[in-house]
Amino acid sequence: MVNDAYAPELLRSLFRYDEETGRLFHAVDRTGANKRIYAKAGNLADTARDSAGYRRVSVRGDGKCHMLYAHRVAFIIANGGIPAGMQIDHINAVRDDNRLINLRIVTPQENQHNYRKAKGYSRHARSGKWEAYIRVDGVRHHLGLFATEAAARAAYLKAKARYHPSTPADLLQAA
What we know:
5 helices, GCC-box Binding Domain, single chain, alpha+beta, elongated, three-stranded antiparallel sheet
C-alpha cells in the first residue's frame, strides 16, 4: 500500500496543494469508522512533523494509516509523480519549506551534496597541516595539504563547486 499511497490520483483526491505557501490542505472531510469528522475539508493536512523536521500527512488504506512526506506529496500533486530512484530535495535545506520553487528532483547522490555539516577538510595528524579532500562517485580524492584551515576550506569549496554541481550556492561560500 505504501507505493499505492503515493498514487497521484489518490493524493489529488485527498489533498489540495498551495504552491506559494507549500502547505497541504484536506480536500474532503476526513471521517473515522464511527462517522466522526476528524478533519474538515480546507483544514491544514501537513501539521505533523517527524524528528528530522519534515512535514508529514497521513493517508488511510488497507486498514492502515501511512505517514507520507509532505514534500513528496506536494511534488507529486504538482508534477504527477517522482521517477524511480529519484528523490525530492529542498533547495534551501529548510525541511518544512515545501513551496514548489524550493523543491527539485535529484539523485540520491546529489541529495547528499548539500549536507550542511559536511566539510572536506581536517587536521592532518602526521604533518600538523590542514588536509582538504572530496568524495566523487564514492572515491576520496586528496586536494592537498595547507598551512591554514581557511586555505583547506577554500580548496574544498572550489572542488565542491566543480565535482558537485547540484550543491546550493550558499554552501559554496567561504566562512
